[in-house]
Write a structure and sequence with these properties.
With 407 residues, the protein is of the alpha+beta class. It contains eleven helices and nine strands. Keywords: FAD, Flavoprotein, Oxidoreductase.
């Protein structure tokens, strides 16, 4: 395995880091003030539009998609350290058109969408003209088992009629959200993994109701995480992505790369938390000595560095595998990083909060916001327990000689 970045990837690293230092970090406080001064948090702050224009002019746009027709065409391994850099702040990913759930939705449309679907929805997403949402989780069932998804999609002539509820639909509250990818049940009598389909539903379709915006530990993101109600929502049958019954196949293809992105952004957040912890420990004194001289604080700092280095190598290996053999053949590694990344990041952020004392749980630092959303990541894209179950199942098969290791 060779994780040495190409010269091109190193160049993108340097350019992105310069963009962060020169434009993004100075814009953080402006962004926050513009959001707080608005009557609703679900806005598009003007400063973000300025950052988007700057990112495009610097060629830092659509970095996530490994297709040179729509961006630089970086591999997952080349993109991984860029995602880490962007993960250090809330606004960098959107500034470069690399934020969830749009990245996953664009990958779905790029890989599975019809030419008409690509022209109508993918291209405006790639151009940053619109935003999107992804509706899978439901309030009435345990959605960690996706076979439980109940929203019905019944064929009626040339249309599908949708009825049901969704929640934690990220992106739907953004003022530029125009399209949802919705997972629902099209054939209850089919094989358990062929009952579900993914369908494109324009946000202004009659019968689609935004019930409420859901807070994350009291925070309302600008893009929101909404509860939705579908009542007789009619869309053309041609809005089905790929084909009826392909929902699970598409979900797996969508979530693999997205988990690499999430994990690298988590590393970026944890790295920033570690920097803040060290700076605070040096700046504050207790009982006549800097906090950084205390043995337990030094243990926390050392453990953070060790764990971050291990985690980064683990994610690099996973990205390298996906580049070489595809996400389907790297499922154990993808599951493993999805468990490890938010848990390690949470521990580091929590300790940084502790070192900051009261300031750590306020909005004077980014730590409380980081913690709230990193805790959510232990549930998003599958809870820890589901990933561990998958890892254990594959390990038992391997130990029994029923399945050979990939490498």
């Amino acid at each position: 395995m060779d994780f040495e970045l190409s010269d091109r990837a190193k160049d993108f690293q340097q350019r992105l880091q310069a963009f962060m230092d020169e434009r993004v970090y100075p814009a953080e406080q402006v962004w926050m003030e513009q959001v707080r001064s608005s009557p609703t948090p679900h806005i598009q702050p003007p400063v973000l539009e300025e950052l988007k224009e700057e990112a495009r002019s610097r060629g830092l746009w659509n970095l996530f998609l490994p297709d040179p027709a729509h961006g630089p065409g970086l591999t997952y391994l080349e993109y991984a350290p860029l995602a880490e850099i962007m993960g250090r702040t809330t606004i960098a990913a959107e500034a470069s058109n690399c934020s969830a759930p749009d990245t996953g939705n664009m990958e779905v449309l790029h890989q599975f969408g019809s030419e008409e679907q690509k022209a109508r929805w993918l291209q405006p997403l790639l151009d940053g003209e619109i935003r999107s949402g992804f509706a899978m989780t439901e309030p009435d069932v345990a959605s960690s088992d996706a076979t439980n998804v109940q929203l019905s999609m019944v064929r009626d002539g040339d249309e599908l009629v949708l009825n049901g509820r969704k929640w934690w639909t990220t992106g739907v509250m953004h003022p530029r959200c125009r399209i949802l990818i919705v997972m629902g049940k099209t054939d209850p009598d089919a094989h358990v993994y062929a009952q579900q389909s993914m369908v494109l539903v324009p946000l202004d379709t009659p019968g689609l109701e935004i019930v409420r915006s859901l807070p994350v530990f009291g925070y309302h993101d600008t893009e929101g995480h909404a509860e939705l109600r579908f009542t007789g929502v009619r869309v053309p049958a041609e809005n089905v992505i790929a084909q009826p019954g392909a929902g699970f196949l598409i979900a797996q293809a969508r979530l693999g790369p997205g988990r690499i992105h999430h994990c690298m952004r988590a590393i970026g957040a944890a790295e920033r938390a570690l920097e803040l912890m060290c700076a605070r420990a040096d700046a504050r004194e207790t009982f006549g000595k800097p906090v950084s001289t205390r043995s337990n604080i030094r243990d926390w700092i050392a453990e953070a560095r060790i764990e971050l280095e291990m985690l980064r190598l683990m994610v690099f290996k996973t990205a390298w595998l996906v580049d070489r053999v595809g996400g389907k053949n790297a499922r154990v590694e993808v599951a493993a990083i999805k468990v490890a990344a938010p848990n390690i990041a949470l521990k580091i952020i929590d300790r940084a909060i502790q070192v900051h004392g009261g300031a750590g749980v306020s909005d004077d630092t980014p730590l409380a916001y980081m913690y709230a959303h990193m805790r959510t990541l232990r549930l998003a894209d599958g809870p820890d327990e589901v990933h561990k179950l998958s890892i254990a199942r594959r390990e038992l098969r391997r130990q029994r000689g029923e399945e050979a290791p990939l490498l």
